[in-house]
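Tutorial, part two.
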Amino acid sequence: MHLSYIKPHWPYIAPGPYHQLFQDVELTSAIRSQNEFKNPHPIYDALTKIRVSRAFSKKEVRDRVLPTYLGLVKQLDDQLGRLFQFMEDHGSYDQTLIVFTSDHGDYLGDHWLGEKDCFHEPSVKIPVIIRDPSSKANSSRGLRSTAIVESVDLIPTFIEALGGTFPDHILEGQSLKPMLHSEPTKSVREYAISEYDYSVAPISSLLNSDPRKARIYMVATKRWKYIYTPRYRPVLFDLQEDHMELKALELKGCLVYG
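Running the prediction step on this input gives:
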């Protein structure tokens, strides 16, 4: 069974009582720096100019939206609680592999951006929470892992959980079963890959982009994040020395194709 919830998501409107639950909480500061505007990458520069980014760059907008966003998270949490209680009442909870994840994060003002359209951690580092009812998963139960996984790893995980096999020349993902059953801290992959087609996004017109080259690509390990952008210079972040990604490293002498 697949359940897809739109919340938390724009237009950031929460019903009562969730819209007011977090109005008085102290909010964390946005992850951003004025230094990000010094010699900005053309694509990043264009992203900061679109409407949603200009809005979230204003402190008053962010301070208004974030409490509602937290309320939407709480609403989703409560509704999942109802679902799990129903499953327990009907005897299916302990027979079901449960995976909670998302397709992307939300900048919410981090890096002077809104929504999701770049590769900083607030956008691409999304949660994946797995509850495997099998007793073989007891060794990993309740643990938090920093292992690298991708969304494409879910289908192989489901197939293997059902006792099936999958052809690796057709499915690109890796089953997470080894992590769940024996080695919860060991990554099934060394790096994660992501890509984004901005040919129909607002920045495409700002950049006068060729639709065939209006794409950006990312490959990230636990330490390094490399972003390739056809037509423009590449971007590299050292996630160990600069975990907030506030200063892209200058790549000298690189050959850039495209």
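The chain has a mean pLDDT of 93. In part three we will examine how such features are distributed along the chain.
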